[in-house]
Amino acid sequence: MSRNTNDKDGFIPFARPSIGVEEEKAVLEVLRSGWLTTGPVAKQLELEFSQLLPTPHALAVNSGTSALHLALSVLGVGTDDWVISTPYTFTATVEIARYLGAHPLFVDIEENSFNIDPVEVEKALNGSDKRIKCIIPVHVGGYPCDMKMLSEIAAHADIAVVEDAAHAFPCETNAGPAGTVGDFGAFSFYATKTITTGEGGMLVTSSKEYASRAEMLRLHGIDRDVWKRYRGDEPASWEYDVVAPGYKYNLADLNAAVGLCQLRKAEKLKERRASIAKRYIEAFSQLDFIDLPPDGAGHAWHLFTICLKSDRLTADRDEFLKAIIGRGVGASVHYKPLHLMSYYRKTYGFKSEDFPHAFRRYGTAISLPIYPSMTDDQVEKTITEIVSLGKRFRRKNG
């Protein structure tokens, strides 16, 4: 499924894209075609992505961040508006609001998951006099948010929903496929994501009007398809108009070629991640020093994040993480909440305890390798090292 899956020194990387000969051939075909930037391959990726979800409109872009920025731009988010989201996410989720002069209104995550708490969202809406324009829920690690409840809350407040589905393809929520429930869905195809184009993403919507404006803004606010202009398919093909100050967010065919191959095996990649998750759960459910990540039928398993029970261990999360890596298992932390980051802390005056569930989970969370090209031996080594370290760091009275 993937080439060069084993490292010579035996170290297990935290993440690795599942790239095979089919991706190499597809890229070579684009190189030989003479057309490298946005063109027929990117269009095909959009078509197949929209059919697979399904969704009426899919626009390929150069990052998940670009997709989010386009969504908020189309919705008219602007200076001194507010967007509700979670602090437990990567900075891209809310930095796009700052691009537009808007502000993040953080609410805490659920006690037993890493996702935004709908109850806290409703409280924020009912208790605020701010001009709130939308909610940005994040399907953290590929575990679906409660989109049914969030959609009902948003509809009652008459505000938009933009799903950050960077981790969530393919993923099923309780209201439909992740990314298709809100007004917009933003996907990431970064190198570590469930499918990749190297760098890239996809913006989806059911609104023809929204899709049309996003497509125009995606490439400098130009009113016509650049690929068609250069092909000479239309009269006076050189002529175009700029109807808005847009962005440079298009996805090149070189990247899209990789994405098409990845898309066509997305379910197979998901099945392998799910099988690794199942083995982890089977092994770790026997351990009394670990809280397992939330599970569910629709889970995409982009991340497998355990939480340590600090009252049973002499080591804190950082010491435990360092020990895991020292034993040859790549691991990471997802995420340091944004309210702890210096920019957001200084700008908005946040304190650590402002979002207690996010702060608590961050302090104990460790993400383990879970990617399709992991071998069974690598999975078992990861399990063995976690079990061994649990014994090493166990409290005598634990």
How would you characterize this protein structure?
This protein has two domains: about 20-265, Type I PLP-dependent aspartate aminotransferase-like (Major domain) (Aspartate Aminotransferase, domain 2), CATH 3.40.640; about 265-390, Aspartate Aminotransferase, domain 1, CATH 3.90.1150.10. It has 14 helices and twelve strands. β4 (about 130-135), α6 and β5 form a beta-alpha-beta unit. Strands 1-9-8-5-4-2-3 form a seven-stranded mixed sheet, with helices on both faces. It has a three-stranded antiparallel sheet with strand order 10-11-12. It has a two-stranded antiparallel ribbon with strand order 6-7. α1 packs antiparallel against α9 (about 255-265), α3 (about 65-75) packs across α4 (about 90-100) and α10 packs parallel to α14. It has helices at about 20-35, 40-50, 65-75, 90-100, 120-125, 145-155, 210-220, 225-230, 255-265, 265-285, 315-325, 340-350, 355-365, 375-390; strands spanning about 55-60, 80-85, 105, 130-135, 160-165, 170-175, 175, 185-190, 200-205, 290, 305-310, 365-370. The protein is of the alpha/beta class and about 400 residues long.
